[in-house]
Amino acid sequence: MAVSLVLRGGRIVTEDGVLEADVWIEDGRIVAIGAQSSADTALSDAATLDAAGKLIFPGLIDPQVHFREPGNTHKEDLASGSLAAVAGGVTTFFEMPNTRPSTTTPALLEDKLARAAERSFGDYAFFLGASAENASRLGEWECAPGCAGVKVFMGSSTGSLLVADDATLERVLRSGTRRVAVHSEDEPRLVERYAALGAGASVSEHPEVRDVETAVRATQRLLDLVERTRRPVHLLHVSTAEEIALLRERDLGDLVTAEVTPNHLFLAAPGCYETHGTGAQMNPPVRERRHQEALRQALVDGVLACIGSDHAPHTPSEKARPYPTSPSGIPGVQTILPLLLTAVDDGWLRLEDVARVTAGAPARVYGVLDKGAIAVGNDADLTIVDPGVVRDLPLSWLRSRAGWSPFVGTRLAGWPECTLVRGTVVYERHGACVAPAGRPVRFASTVDGAAGGG
């Protein structure tokens, strides 16, 4: 075999365990995995990357980012956001539709794909946003190349991207077959809660304004419609213990998958608002520790399938506006892996869990082809981590245009130091190594235009 690169001496992290082995790469794909002692004369001319003492993870898949292009590129764009991604070991991202204009038509999807070509450091896909205007057309459009699927906002978002009523939501669910990603907050209750908000409100009230009932009502409505339509959905950024209990009780199997953000796992009210102010403000809100504990347990046992950063950058001056005029959103695509490795160090996650929730599970949830695991035949998307580095997160490490994080100064254990996308080292030693060369992600449900279930 003609091998172009060998990663030698590392410890490969899989969902089933950790093994010492070399990874052999040819033409961007993994062609063999073997013990360090494996002898193969065909390897004599291959380039070697020394991974001794390091952990090798499958490249992370972040299925929920907001890179703000087009319309708000002063906050982030596809180049800066994808650079932050690969700096954190994220080799694949799915970008959300609430840009300006919102991504609600095939033409607008094509515009994003054209913008990403030759500017994205990682591989990419983009969601189409559901609205009352396009609900009946989404089934025609969702299998376009480079489309991650359909995204629904049940609570307030940008422009027309709001599906607040069950009738429209059912139209969306009955139009198409791919898994639908859903932001689940009840819009009528949000309208009531914000209307009742008094003058001089504090951001510490954010978890009460967008309260537990707001999330639970919407999720209950969604699950009822899923049972009726049998359309698979993916519940985004779950934030409450009550929703976890509801998911366990309803137990709809593969019809309903769910994810959680690192923010909800590693921040907790009221302390996060006292420390970070509006820097901890996001939708749905970070809540009290009882919710954090329930979310952590649900991630461990698989009720929550995967991690999505919900990377949502705003400038520091925008975040400094008085609540509630301050925008919601926290940048986070670059800090997923150090946070989860700190959880391993703290004892509530395993390395195998990290591989599952950051790579294997998102690939399965969305039907991603050739990614999600270190396996022969897959793309050689790899993240090399030095497990011995424990340090405070420095501001200088961040690559997002936002230029801040509530985790700056937090002691974190284990850091990504080298990222490969399809066998090419794209980021190493705190800098990009090559020009952007990301490609659209391929999905099982979109190959040759064929539709398929989630």
Give a description of the structure.
- With 454 residues, this protein is an alpha/beta fold.
- The protein has one domain (1-448): Metal-dependent hydrolases (TIM Barrel, Alpha-Beta Barrel).
- The chain contains 14 helices and 19 strands.
- The strands form 3 sheets. An 8-stranded parallel sheet has the order 8-9-10-11-12-13-14-15. A 7-stranded mixed sheet has the order 3-2-7-16-17-18-19.
- The radius of gyration is 21 Å and the shape is globular.
SSE order and pairing:
Blueprint: E1 5-8, E2 11-14, E3 17-20, E4 22-26, E5 29-34, E6 47-50, E7 55-58, E8 60-65, H1 78-87, E9 90-95, H2 106-116, E10 123-129, H3 138-141, E11 147-153, H4 166-174, E12 180-183, H5 187-195, H6 206-209, H7 212-229, E13 233-235, H8 241-250, E14 256-260, H9 262-266, H10 271-276, H11 289-301, E15 306-307, H12 316-319, H13 336-346, H14 351-366, E16 382-392, E17 411-421, E18 424-428, E19 431-432
Parallel strand pairs: 1-6, 2-7, 8-9, 9-10, 10-11, 11-12, 12-13, 13-14, 14-15
Antiparallel strand pairs: 1-4, 2-3, 4-5, 7-16, 16-17, 17-18, 18-19
